[in-house]
Amino acid sequence: MSDFSREEAEASIQNAKDLVIESLAETMDLYGVTRSAGTLYGTMYFEGDMTLDEMRTQLGMSKPSMSTGVKKLQDLNVAKKTFRRGQRKHTYIAERDFFKFFSDFFSDQWKREANLNLEAIDKAQMQLNETIEDSSLPEETWKEAEKVHRILEESKPYYYWLQNLAAMLRSGELIDAVPYSRKQRKS
Amino acid sequence: MSDFSREEAEASIQNAKDLVIESLAETMDLYGVTRSAGTLYGTMYFEGDMTLDEMRTQLGMSKPSMSTGVKKLQDLNVAKKTFRRGQRKHTYIAERDFFKFFSDFFSDQWKREANLNLEAIDKAQMQLNETIEDSSLPEETWKEAEKVHRILEESKPYYYWLQNLAAMLRSGELIDAVPYSRKQRKS
DNA sequence: TAATTGATTAAAAAAATTTTTAACGTATTG
DNA sequence: CAATACGTTAAAAATTTTTTTAATCAATTA
Fold first, then answer.
1. Residue B127 belongs to domain spanning
2. Are B105 and B89 in the same domain?
3. I need a labelling partner for B89 at 20 to 30 A (CA). Which of A29, A161, B29, B107 fits?
4. A184 touches chain B (CB under 8 A)
5. Given A96, A129, A162, which residue is the final one in a domain?
6. Of B10, B164, B178, the CB nearest to A168
């Protein structure tokens, strides 16, 4: 039976895509990507490789927007430059492997976070030691220095843990330690 | 020996704190918190409970800023309202347990992300099925519908995996599966 | 219960980010 | 090697977000 005209069917397909594009864009917000770059990713997600002009046509935005958008997606490793034979324009394709994205993104982020904070803690503790070792200061003062030193010391295990987690994620260990299928976990 | 005056020592302690406050604020950017709310958290991190007016004095900002900042931190579960005996003003204290923060934050975020996308995928696939089942359409059209359907189907394992990861994180399983100490992992 | 203090909401101002238009540089092709 | 097409950078415009001031609401106390 023929419920749909061809045009209706194609509009319906586009509508289905849009539902997911919306949802992907909303998600990518959480990964520090603007809504428009997220929508661009979602659009590319359903296409083969695309030129900047094709993107612009689909999204109705300017070409520099596409250029910077693609750049952001490349930084995130979710878009790659491709070669299309006999095509003068540059082409780009979306990375569809979310596991790879997850691993790259969070292992980088967590490693950076841990290193940044541990470095600050080290510097702060060295500076605090100068005060702590100075016996001529009033009790109140070096007690405060010791308190701050202790608070910082107590936070270190978290950052070590985060470094270890990042390493496990990068190596693939973590991915495989969690089941891939639905409701496989005990209830 | 007396290298420091008391004032110098106190300035030095504050300087040490500031190093870490800066670093915490930069980190919290990654968790969707504005720089100023991040700085507020860092400030509270080294203090006991604080009133809005104490915060404002320390940060040199307006009281409504403190009010909305604390609210954001409460939403993130990194600040809690406390009771200070005989204190009319409200007081708040920073949560220092980063493990708890990590678990709460990411298990929520990942669960939301998985559910949101799986829901969109479901709706999209149902809509695509209408086109796929319509035998009167040109081959090109239902082939496209099938392709999109397949792409979506192939992404599901990732979201199931993410749901499982979120559950493992919430239950504490994941935290304990990763070592807490430095360089414990094989090199 | 009136007066006062403190917190939040609303509206305005300020600041930061995103997007576009326009200019520029680079590379490809005839 | 000239001409043209493409991509990126720069500057301007537009939008969004953040912050503040002002007003309102709520609660405590005298």
1. 99-177
2. no
3. B29
4. yes
5. A96
6. B178
- Residues B123 and B164 reside in one and the same domain: yes
Same domain, A151 and A79: no
The pLDDT tens digits for A40-89 are 999 999 999 999 999 999 999 999 999 999 999 999 999 999 988 888 89
B90 and B169, same domain (yes or no) = no
What is the residue-averaged pLDDT of chain A?
Answer: 93
The number of C-beta contacts closer than 8 angstroms across A and B is 199
- Mark whether A106 and A165 lie in a shared domain: yes
Q: Which nucleotide is nearest to B88 (CA to C1')?
A: D28
Spatial contact of A160 and B180, defined as CB atoms under 8 Å apart: yes
Q: pLDDT tens digit string along A146-187?
A: 999 999 999 999 999 999 999 999 999 999 999 999 865 454
Q: Is residue A15 part of a domain?
A: yes
- Is there a domain that residue B185 lies in? no
> Do B121 and B64 sit in the same domain of this protein?
no
Q: Which nucleotides of D are covered by protein (CB under 7 A)?
A: 5-10, 17-22, 28-29
Are the beta carbons of B77 and B104 closer than 8 angstroms?
yes
Task: Assess A165–B contact: CB distance below 8 Å, yes or no.
Answer: yes
* Chain C, protein-covered positions (CB within 7 A): 5-10, 17-22, 28-29
List, as ranges, residues 88-147 from B with C-beta within 8 Å of A. Answer: 96, 98-99, 102, 109, 113, 116-117, 119-121, 123-125, 127-128, 130-131, 134-138, 141-142, 144-145
CB contact under 8 A, B182 and A168: no
A90 domain-assigned: yes
Q: How far is B36 from chain A (nearest CA, A)?
A: 18
Q: Check if A11 contacts B (Cβ < 8 Å).
A: no
Chain A residue whose CA is closest to B105? A30
> How far apart are the CA of A58 and the nearest CA of chain B, in angstroms?
17
Is B91 in contact with B50 (CB distance < 8 Å)?
yes
**Which residue pairs from A169-178 have beta carbons closer than 8 angstroms and sit at least 24 positions apart in sequence?**
A169/A102, A169/A103, A169/A106, A169/A107, A169/A110, A170/A103, A170/A107, A170/A111, A172/A103, A174/A103, A175/A99, A175/A102, A175/A103, A175/B161, A177/B177, A178/B161, A178/B164, A178/B165, A178/B168
Q: How many structural domains comprise chain B?
A: 2
Instruction: Say whether both B29 and B87 belong to one domain.
Output: yes
Return the number of other C-beta atoms located less than 10 Å from residue B177's C-beta. 15
Q: How many percent of chain A have pLDDT more than 90? A: 86
Are B73 and B88 in a shared domain? yes
